[in-house]
Amino acid sequence: MNMLSATSRRAFLRAGGRFAVLAGLPLASLCALEPLRRPGRCRLKLSLAAYSFRDQFNAADPARRLTLPAFLDYCADHGCDGAELTSYYFPKDFGPDLPASLKRHAHLRGVDISGTAVGNNFALPDGPERDQQIAHVKTWVNHAAALGAPHLRVFAGDAKGLDKTAAKRQCIRALEECGEYAGTKGVWLGLENHGGIVAQVDDLLEIVTAVKSPWVGVNLDSGNFYSDADPYGEMARLAPYAVNVQLKVAISRPGRAKQPTDLDRFVQVLRDANYQGYVALEFEEANPQTEVPGWLERMKAAFAKV
């Protein structure tokens, strides 16, 4: 993947940051990086997020509870190229044997572990709580590397004890620190459009383009848009920076009923950005046991047209 050299990238961002401070303008307006450059053609690979079966993973009855190996089997049996193993469904404390066994199981079933995901908040003032959040993300970078997963989804979070400008600055600093560490493990960090201080696409892009790390990009979630703008237009703004994509079957917008996702328009956005990588179905509606298989088939058909 051709990208700006680390030296020119750092110099450019330092200069942009200085001018932004002097002019009082948004950082992204002065130091926006070029989108990720991908030679060749758009390639979309099908994955499924474990979060789609959150109720089954959290079942009170152990006999009915879904396990991570069983989820990998489900992905293989339904023709997925990958499986996204959300951190929420791992035991609270586990050693190196679990990632190794899951990696082995996935390989034997012909499924990649396309990524994992954490819940975190980087929009915090300096102190023990922020340090803990950064340490948590770094721990999951280690787990992602052990799983053979190339991507870790992270959040920006909600501002706590800070105004929005300061919270964004803290998020940038945390992403730089975690991104530097993630790069040593060969793991991408994808910042999701997930509300909080990145509820608006402008804010998310301001943060991501300011981060001085070649290992930080966007985790594009098709369902999370919070402005009155056309959601597909907003997706198109994020797609050139996407290092992972999650498809929701409905789009949530403030003050409006959920709208079904137009799969053809969604795929066209990815095609126009020449995205190459995983698209994970993250199913949030009812009855995943009966509904997910049909959506996977629709996604396969749509991807085959690319």
Q: What percent of residues are in strands?
A: 15-25%
Whole-number tally of structural domains: 1
Order of strands across the widest beta sheet? 1-2-3-4-5-6-7-10
Q: Rg from C-alpha positions?
A: 19 Å
Percentage of residues assigned to helices:
40-55%
- Give the quaternary arrangement of the chains: single chain
Report the top-level CATH class.
Alpha Beta
Uncertain ranges:
1-32
Main sheet characteristics: 8 strands, parallel, barrel
Shape descriptor reads globular
Alpha-beta classification: alpha/beta
What is the H-and-E element order? HHEHHEHEHEHEHEHEEEHEH
N-to-C span: 21 Å
CATH-defined superfamily:
Divalent-metal-dependent TIM barrel enzymes
The averaged pLDDT comes out at 91
Keywords for this structure?
single chain; 306 residues; alpha/beta; TIM Barrel; 8-stranded parallel beta barrel; two-stranded antiparallel ribbon; 11 helices; disordered N terminus
